[in-house]
From TrEMBL:
<keyword id="KW-0862">Zinc</keyword>
<dbReference type="Pfam" id="PF00149">
    <property type="entry name" value="Metallophos"/>
</dbReference>
<keyword id="KW-0479">Metal-binding</keyword>
<dbReference type="GO" id="GO:0046872">
    <property type="term" value="F:metal ion binding"/>
</dbReference>
<keyword id="KW-0325">Glycoprotein</keyword>
<comment type="similarity">
    <text>Belongs to the metallophosphoesterase superfamily. Purple acid phosphatase family.</text>
</comment>
<feature type="signal peptide">
    <location>
        <begin position="1"/>
        <end position="25"/>
    </location>
</feature>
<keyword id="KW-0408">Iron</keyword>
<feature type="domain" description="Purple acid phosphatase N-terminal">
    <location>
        <begin position="54"/>
        <end position="145"/>
    </location>
</feature>
<feature type="domain" description="Calcineurin-like phosphoesterase">
    <location>
        <begin position="156"/>
        <end position="354"/>
    </location>
</feature>
<dbReference type="InterPro" id="IPR015914">
    <property type="entry name" value="PAPs_N"/>
</dbReference>
<dbReference type="Pfam" id="PF16656">
    <property type="entry name" value="Pur_ac_phosph_N"/>
</dbReference>
<keyword id="KW-0732">Signal</keyword>
<dbReference type="InterPro" id="IPR004843">
    <property type="entry name" value="Calcineurin-like_PHP"/>
</dbReference>
<keyword id="KW-0378">Hydrolase</keyword>
<dbReference type="InterPro" id="IPR029052">
    <property type="entry name" value="Metallo-depent_PP-like"/>
</dbReference>
<dbReference type="GO" id="GO:0003993">
    <property type="term" value="F:acid phosphatase activity"/>
</dbReference>
Amino acid sequence: MGVVEGLLALGLILNVCVVCNGGTSSPFVRKVEKAVDMPLDSDVFAIPPGYNAPQQVHITQGDLVGKAVIVSWVTVDEPGSSEVRYWSENSDQKKIVEGKLVTYRFFNYTSGFIHHTTIRNLEYNTKYYYEVGLGNTTRQFWFVTPPEIGPDVPYTFGLIGDLGQSFDSNKTLSHYELNPRKGQTVLFVGDLSYADNYPNHDNIRWDSWGRFTERSVAYQPWIWTAGNHEIDFAPEIGETVPFKPYTHRYHVPYKASQSTSPFWYSIKRASAHIIVLASYSAYGKYTPQYKWLEKELPKVNRTETPWLIVLMHSPWYNSYNYHYMEGETMRVMYEPWFVQYKVDVVFAGHVHAYERSVSAKTWSLKLLALQFLI
Ligand SMILES: [Fe+2]
């Protein structure tokens, strides 16, 4: 290439970059230093007072269409009750629904009693109060159901991933809570507690994370995606069943979308059809996830839900040096379908540096697509 052609090419590239620069969307600049976890006696981890008081209360969507809610919580002194009492804002008549409890062991850790109870047949667009626990240690929370699914329904999703439990995690959660746009549901793109950073994956840090996040997730659903920090595969201490703490603690409505696994599923909420994919489950041809996604994409009704959103943990496009191209093999498998079915937006976590892009295909828009904003 001659000098003139070279300059022309450079000029074209710079021009494309200028045209496609998304600009700075937030004045916030993350500090570079390594995050430090909050000590266990921090106020955000406080155990609610009272014998066998429910703790780590969290909710998520409990069906395909947003008329059900899964309520989960932990009791530690004794099993207690898996009952949820709930009533709508406009009624003082309490309804009662029973759930189930599970426990698990992880090396030398034994979990508390983890309750999961699904409330069904809720009305859309309605505030509900709910109670868990018994007697003096009853705790009360509330949530608001989404509007009926439809193309013209405005709705505000928050987006959080890779949260952990550092001092910065607390800032992140407060940042979300204080946002004047008032997110109504969190799309959580994986990596919850980072308990696996501790010796023997100290599952006490799963409990502390549950108490830390309760202040948001007890009041609005967080839509869960599994990340690498949920794998908890530790054969060196005899823990060979992947995702054991995550699957016991965080239930999702995967059967409602004909999925056979909690790691991939879909929900519809307001004007969005949301597909959750699993970066750390098999996704090659003939695998259960592949077969499910192949059937799922043609089901999306863009007249009903014009927004098609996909959540995954490991991004397909990333210009950062960390985790570079870890999502590449999944991209190769599924990107043609995403193009064919016109996925509007893909949200991913994993890389702790914010990037966003215009639509991309087989890296062909790489130069134009990836821009550091923060
Ligand atoms: Fe990750």
